[in-house]
Structures are given as C-alpha cells and as structure tokens.
Specification:
By secondary structure, the protein is an alpha/beta fold. The protein has one domain: NAD(P)-binding Rossmann-like Domain (Rossmann fold). It contains eight helices and nine strands. The chain has helices at about 35-45, 60-70, 85-100, 120-145, 170-190, 205-220, 225-235, 245-255; strands spanning about 25-30, 50-55, 75-80, 105-110, 145-155, 195-200, 205, 240, 265-270. β4 (about 105-110), α4 (about 120-145) and β5 (about 145-155) form a beta-alpha-beta unit. α3 (about 85-100) packs parallel to α4 (about 120-145). Belongs to the short-chain dehydrogenases/reductases (SDR) family. This is SDR family oxidoreductase. InterPro entries: KR_dom, NAD(P)-bd_dom_sf, Sc_DH/Rdtase_CS, SDR, SDR_fam.
Length: about 280
C-alpha cells in the first residue's frame, strides 16, 4: 500500500536501542519472534552483540528464517517452535535450551494474539487469555531460575492495556493484566536487581495489524487500504509506528542504561493515545 505520509522510522538510523557490542555475550529469550516486533527485537539484539538467542514462536517455518537472519549477524540462535498453550512442551524445550546456555540475561515476552470476540464468546476469551497472559506467566516462570542478577524482562502489552475497544474484551483484559503482572513481578524481583517493564505499542505496522484490518474490512464491506489511511489520520505523527521502533524501545530497556527503570509501562504510538 502507498500513502503520502512516510511510515519509515526516525531519519538517520537507529533510535534509542543498544549500541553495537553493548549486549556482547548476553543470552536472550524472545517469544513471538517469527515476525513483527518479535523479529525486529531478535535482530536488534543480535546486532548489539547478543551471543545466544532462544527464539520461540508457533510458526516454525518463519522462525527458522529469523534464526538464519540472526546467525548472519553473528548470534547463535535456536528455534523453539511451540504454541504457548502447550505448557509442557514450552517448559521442556525452553529449559533444555536454557540448561545448554547456562544463564539468561534478557527475556522479552512478545507472543500474543489479537482475536476479536463478542462479550459472550467464552471460547475466544479463554484462548486469548491463555496465550497472552497465562502463556507469558508460564514462559517467565520457566526462565526465572536461569535469570541472572540484574537481568531484564520486558513484556509487550498494548495501548489497549489502558483503554477499551469494541469486540476486544479478551484482548483488552489480557493486556491490562500484563501491565499488572509487570508491576507486581518488578517488585518480586527487585532484590535481585532484575528490572521488569512493559512496552505498549499502538498502531504498529506488522503482519498482525494488516490481518486484523483485512478481517474487519471484510466484515463491514470496506476497503482495507482506506481503513489504513483513516487510521493514520488519527495519529498525530500521521504515520504508523515501525516494528523496529518498538524493538528499539525494548532494546533500550534491556540495556545497561535502563538499570534504574522498573515497574514502568512505556507507550510507543505516535501520539495516538495523547499521553493517556
């Protein structure tokens, strides 16, 4: 799709992400790593010198592509192809890779789904909560014994972790829950010097967003391209946020420069929520 407003990131290159080599020797787990924010985060960590990446996603084929991309940047990357609802498989595979790595420095909980639901749709409600909230808990619990002192956890929530949206009770509840989980976990782990923060993306130009818009357009008989243009007009910066820009915020939070930031929820939305 084309538009007269650019959707590229900040001119001149990377923003506030870690510098090359800043994460040298670090081991990181990134969930939802096959595309979008997860993929960009994995590659950014590799560029910053992370030595070992454990990448989890249910899309095995695309995940292998990201593993190869990360390897091309100098990182040892391994794929854990699993659905977060399969708790036993996730725990077993993750712990096997973490035992091989020995320790863990960074955990980025990015995996999630954004299925719409009616207010009485229990099936979708349970599925979304199971993946977005309970899945994040399960991954974190499996990682905690390996996480080093002064390690970093970043949970990817959403601007809908602070607001509501029609036909999104499950998604909104899960993302609100992630913010509460972040705050509580940050206090639990503070004595170990581990920081826990949440990133709240708004309109991010990802495959997930394109699918959501296409489904909504089909439901109401609208043009997806027109819906996207309308969405841009509602953003003060008049563009979607790039997945890379969200990844750079995550990169900053896992860097040494963010050692005093914890229990926070930081929004990256081009001004869409007007500072809510």
């Amino acid at each position: 799709m084309t538009d007269d407003v650019t959707t590229t990131g900040v001119p001149g290159g990377p923003g506030g992400g870690p510098a090359p080599g800043e994460l040298a020797g670090k081991t990181a787990v990134v969930t939802g790593a096959a595309q979008g924010i997860g993929r960009e985060t994995a590659l950014l960590l590799a560029e910053a010198g992370a030595a070992r990446l454990i990448l989890l996603d249910r899309d095995a084929g695309q995940l292998e592509t990201v593993v190869k991309e990360a390897a091309g940047l100098g990182a040892t990357a391994v794929a854990v192809a699993a659905d977060l609802r399969d708790r036993e498989l996730v725990r077993r595979r993750l712990r096997a890779e973490l035992r091989a790595a020995g320790t863990l420095d960074i955990l980025v909980n990015n995996a999630g789904v954004a299925d719409e639901n009616g207010p009485d749709d229990e099936t979708t409600w349970l599925r979304v909560l199971d993946i977005n909230l309970h899945g994040t808990f399960a991954v974190t619990a499996a990682c905690l014994e390996y996480l080093v002192a002064h390690g970093r956890i970043v949970n990817v929530s959403s601007i809908l972790g602070k607001a509501g949206k029609m036909r999104n009770t499950a998604y909104c509840a899960s993302k609100h829950g992630l913010i509460g989980y972040t705050k509580g976990l940050a206090l639990d782990l503070a004595a170990r010097g581990i920081t826990v923060n949440a990133v709240l993306p708004g309109w991010i130009d990802t495959p997930m967003l394109r699918r959501e818009l296409a489904a909504q357009a089909d439901e109401i008989g609208a043009d997806p391209a027109r819906m996207l243009r309308q969405a841009r007009k509602g953003i003060p910066l008049r563009r979607l946020v790039e997945a890379r820009e969200a990844a750079e915020l995550i990169g900053f939070l896992v860097s040494g420069r963010a050692a005093a930031i914890t229990a926070q929820s930081l929004t990256v939305d081009g001004g869409y929520t007007r500072g809510m």
